[in-house]
């Protein structure tokens, strides 16, 4: 990867543009999380107002499923916010747009598609999902 002080900006990783794009994506994720938390509160209220026997109450099973789905989406939004916060930190450090595995620049198209990407497409394909690193 070389010395960080001699490294040129990554192609496609203009710090101002990256910060704006990441901040926009973070705001959207925070909005989604707020909405999901509202949905979860509404579902919890609805569940309190129905019978507690999910197995025999047709509404109980539906509410339980919807609550589990909303909870899963909320956890996903939290994870996305954490990834975006980490990417914003990399922008501040001057490390944004550089692959954490091979040290090469992450392509502009990949950063456009996945603004919080930590790895180049080649390393992401090599490590793949579920193999330790997220890219």
TrEMBL record:
Keyword Cytoplasm: no
SUPFAM superfamilies: Glucocorticoid receptor-like (DNA-binding domain)
Annotated Pfam families: zf-dskA_traR
Stretches assigned to the Zinc finger DksA/TraR C4-type domain: 94-126
InterPro entries: Znf_DskA_TraR, Znf_DskA_TraR_CS
Region described as Disordered: spans on this chain: 1-61
dksA C4-type ZnF: 99-123
UniProt entry keywords in alphabetical sequence: Metal-binding, Zinc, Zinc-finger
N-terminal signal peptide: none
Compositionally biased residues, Basic and acidic residues: 16-31
Protein name: TraR/DksA C4-type zinc finger protein
Annotated source species: Cellulomonas chengniuliangii
